[in-house]
Every structure is written in structure tokens, then in C-alpha cells.
Design a protein that fits this description.
Radius of gyration: 24 Å
Strand content: 15-25%
Structural class: alpha/beta
Low-confidence stretches: none
Mean pLDDT: 97
Largest sheet: 7 strands, mixed
Number of domains: 2
CATH topology of the largest domain: Aldehyde Dehydrogenase, Chain A, domain 1
């Protein structure tokens, strides 16, 4: 059997909610999961509701005391076992994601590598997530970290393997239990993850409830027994989640949108141009452009503009736009028809307000009639246009010419977002000075998308609240409690 046939045959016919390490029967309404490119039917998924959320939260709440009491070593062992089994299952799971969301196999394989890193990283971090202490007069101060309890988590569709890991790993490493809602456009691999979790974690520690955001998501964020919320997605929905948390005065962490600047200085060496062009291409087109991290605004210096653009356009035109089940680097399809119409509308806007220099067309791919495939698209524009200001979430790059450093810095920061950024220069002072002035949670110098486990990932401004990927993430999932101990009682003094 091929990897594709193995993956298809491993899917359940119907997926209900995963609660208490078991899949519930989908007795109510279901919705179909279909391959993004071909439209092929893959499985039915339960359209869960508030009752399922009630059951999942009750399960997580019941499991919390024992999981909180588990040693960090025990929690770490579970996370490492999950990482082990995901590694063994990667060839199957990456095919499921490629079918489900339309990204190339070469990308979904990277997703699982990064996901495994996160489970292993937080397994190790759990062992070093300590409080602090110091002597005080006649005693000692102890500050310790304690988990919140039940964490409600909502993830998007673009990189489901990574998103599940970023939410589950730190929460359970810190001693919390989880109710996770996957996106309705990409639920299959997360529900398949439930099958692996059932053999490793105690019942109720991790629960997965699929369904629609306005139903399941709203019920989860409003549930009175959820002690913390974590959301990744659009800034618009992030506001809704934040409001739900503020209504009940519980902590909320958010990883939201981006419109990231990628800055090319004129001092780059001639011998480096092709490598930088390749990295810029990757940084804007990876994930079919459906990434909050994407370097979608390229600030290109006037002194090297013409030569760099010539090579950049050639690079974009070399990208293969083909069936995502093909091997090697490629540009697949967008996740859905809805997303296809969104990207098409922005390309139409760009044709009116900017200069289209390559791409801009939807492409038909043999055997992929349902897929929304677009050519890699590049516009020459200014920073005040809609395509340079708004998150498109598709394979569209805006190129902005610059020669005034102060204006470039102003424009780079002059968006509502502040998630990521890139700099290419051979001048260390230029690199560090510019990094300090960019309003972004991540600055990558000479290598865009330079993510590493342990490197904080989070945004400024409307790109979010809190940091993932790092030891600090464990602090987002815990209270800090202070305990003071004296060796003896103070002499009476108040009412004497």
C-alpha cells in the first residue's frame, strides 16, 4: 500500500468528540471533511455543541487534581512518549494533513518535525520550571508555580500539527488539563492525535472537541469551569476570545495575525543575492502564503532594486504549482473555497491600487478540481495600500522600494500588527540597530522563518499577547504563589 492509501484507510468513518480518552458517538449533526485539492470525501466529523463542551470540561476538571499532583518527571515521560509515537506515525499523519488542507507533503513533514520538538522541549522544560526562594527575617520565602486547571484552547487550520503541539505541550507540562477545539477546516490530524493520546495520558487530561467556532468555540470560551484560554487565529476573533476571558476575569493568551516586514539592505554581497532571493521567496510563499509569520512586505533598497527584482521574479516563476501530494518543494492550494475567494478579492484590489509584476491568476491543476491554486503573486506598491496593510493569507508579496532609512523604519512599523520581521545585511550594527527599532516579537537576521524550540514566539500590538515556543510559556499556564515560613511566632505587640 502507498502512504496515501495507508493514511486513508486509517481514518475513522465518523469522528465524535474525544473525551476521557474515548471517542463519543456522533449522534447529532456531522459535517464532511474533504480533501482541499481534489474534493474527495475523507470522513464525517461531529458538529459538537455546548453539551459536548460541558462533558469535556467536566472530564478535564475531574482529571486535574491527579494530573496536578503528578511529578514533573511523570508529565515529561508522557510528553516524550507522545513525541516518540508521533515520530513513528509522521508519514501517515503528514499525508492526512496534506489531503485535509492542501499544503505540500514537504511542508507537512516539517510541521511534524517541529511538533515533535515542542513536545520534547516542554518535557524537558517541565523539569526545570521551578519557583524561587530566599531567606527573610526569622524564616524563608518560597514562591512556587501552580497550574490554573482546565485550559480551553482553540487552534487554526493552517498548521494543525504545530498548533496542537504549541497548545497542548506547555499546558500539560505545567500540570493543567486541556479541552482543545480544532478548526473545522482541519480537524482530522488533531482527532487522530487523540488516538495516540489515549494510549499515553490518563483519561481526561487532554480532550478534543470538534465543531464550529460560533458553537463549540463560544461555549468553550464562556464555560465557567475553564480557568485559562489560549487562542491562535485572526485578530478579529482574538478580540472575541479576549472579551470572553475578561468577562470572567481569567487569563487569555493570544497569537494573532501579522503583516511582517522583510528588509533588504544595499550592503548585501553580490554572491549572496541568489541565496537571499531564495529565502525571501520561501519566507513569503511557505504554507501557500497562509501563515501569520509570512514576510509579506519586502522592503527592498533602491540601490539593488532592479537586479534583486529580476532574480526574485525568476525565483517566483520557478515555483511548481501542482498537486500537493507531489514530492519536493511546491505551492499547493488554499484550504477552502472561502479562502480562495478572499485571496482573489485582494489580488483584484492589488490590480487597482498597485502594479502587478508577476502571477495574479488562479491555476487549474489536473486531478485537483476543487483546489484553489494561485500563481505566486508579486506587486510593486507603497506601504499605504490595502494589500500592504491587511493580512491576505495567500501567496501574495508586496514589494516596497526604499532609500531613506528613517522612512523605511516608520513604514515597517506602520501597520496594526507586530509579529515577525526579517533583516538582510552584512553590517552587524545595522542589523542590531534595526532589530531594536522594529516593533515585532521576532526579528530574524539573514534567515527568515528561523524558528527554534526555546526561542520566544509572540507578537506586539494586534499580533497577540504572550509568548509560545519557550520556557516563558510555562509561566503563562501557571499562577505564582508566595509562601512565607517563619521558624517561630512573633511576640505579641498589636493589642497589648
Amino acid at each position: 500500500m502507498t502512504d496515501t492509501s495507508i493514511a486513508k484507510s486509517s481514518l475513522s468513518e465518523v469522528y465524535g468528540a474525544f473525551i476521557d480518552n474515548e471517542f463519543r458517538s456522533a449522534s447529532r449533526t456531522t459535517f464532511p471533511a474533504r480533501a482541499a485539492a481534489s474534493g474527495e470525501y475523507l470522513a464525517d466529523i461531529a458538529r459538537c455543541d455546548a453539551n459536548d463542551i460541558d462533558d469535556a470540561v467536566a472530564s478535564a476538571k475531574a482529571a486535574f487534581p491527579a494530573w496536578k499532583a503528578a511529578t514533573p518527571e511523570d508529565r515529561a515521560a508522557c510528553l516524550n512518549k507522545l513525541a516518540d509515537v508521533i515520530e513513528r506515525e509522521t508519514s501517515r499523519l503528514m499525508v492526512i494533513d496534506t489531503m485535509d488542507i492542501g499544503r505540500g507533503l514537504w511542508e507537512t513533514e516539517i510541521d511534524y518535525s517541529l511538533a515533535v520538538q515542542q513536545y520534547r522541549y516542554f518535557a524537558a522544560a517541565a523539569l526545570t520550571h521551578e519557583g524561587f526562594g530566599r531567606p527573610i527575617a526569622d524564616g524563608y520565602l518560597l514562591a512556587k508555580r501552580e497550574p490554573y486547571g482546565v485550559c480551553g484552547q482553540i487552534i487554526p487550520w493552517n498548521v494543525p500539527a504545530i498548533m496542537a503541539a504549541l497548545k497542548i505541550a506547555p499546558a500539560v507540562a505545567a500540570g493543567n488539563t486541556v479541552v482543545l477545539k480544532p478548526d473545522e477546516n482541519a480537524s482530522l490530524s488533531t482527532l487522530e492525535l487523540g488516538k495516540l493520546i489515549a494510549d499515553i495520558f490518563p483519561p481526561g487530561v487532554i480532550n478534543i472537541v470538534p465543531g464550529m467556532g460560533e458553537e463549540v468555540g463560544a461555549s468553550l470560551t464562556a464555560h465557567p469551569d475553564v480557568a485559562k484560554l489560549a487562542f491562535t487565529g485572526s485578530s478579529e476573533v482574538g478580540r472575541i476570545v479576549s472579551h470572553a476571558g475578561s468577562n470572567r476575569l481569567i487569563p487569555v493568551s493570544l497569537e494573532l495575525g501579522g503583516k511582517s516586514p522583510n528588509i533588504i539592505f544595499p550592503d548585501i554581497g553580490t554572491s549572496d543575492i541568489d541565496a537571499i532571493v531564495d529565502n525571501v521567496t520561501f519566507g513569503s510563499m511557505y504554507c501557500n502564503g497562509q501563515s501569520c509569520l509570512a514576510g509579506t512586505r519586502l522592503f527592498l533598497h533602491d540601490a539593488i532594486y532592479d537586479e534583486f527584482m529580476q532574480r526574485l521574479l525568476a525565483s517566483m516563476q520557478r515555483i511548481r504549482v501542482i498537486d500537493p501530494m507531489s514530492q519536493g518543494p511546491l505551492l499547493g492550494c488554499l484550504v477552502s473555497e472561502k479562502q480562495g475567494h478572499r485571496v482573489q478579492s485582494y489580488i483584484d484590489i492589488g490590480r487597482k491600487e498597485a502594479s502587478l509584476v508577476t502571477g495574479g491568476n488562479r491555476i487549474e491543476v489536473s486531478g485537483c478540481a476543487a483546489g484553489w491554486f494561485f500563481e505566486p503573486t508579486v506587486f510593486e506598491t507603497s506601504n499605504d495600500t490595502r494589500i500592504a496593510q491587511e493580512e491576505i493569507f495567500g501567496p501574495v508579496l508586496s514589494v516596497i522600494r526604499w532609500n531613506d532609512y528613517e522612512k523605511m523604519i516608520h513604514d515597517a512599523n506602520n501597520v496594526r500588527y507586530g509579529l515577525a520581521s526579517g533583516i538582510y545585511t552584512n553590517n552587524l550594527k545595522s542589523a542590531l540597530d534595526t532589530a531594536d527599532r522594529l516593533q515585532a516579537g521576532n526579528v530574524w537576521i539573514n534567515n527568515y522563518f528561523n524558528l527554534a524550540a526555546g526561542s520566544p514566539f509572540g507578537g506586539f500590538k494586534e499580533s497577540g499577547i504572550g509568548s509560545e515556543f519557550c520556557h516563558e510559556t510555562l509561566n503563562m499556564y501557571t499562577h505564582l504563589k508566595a509562601i512565607t515560613v517563619q521558624t517561630q511566632v512573633n511576640p505579641a505587640w498589636y493589642a497589648t
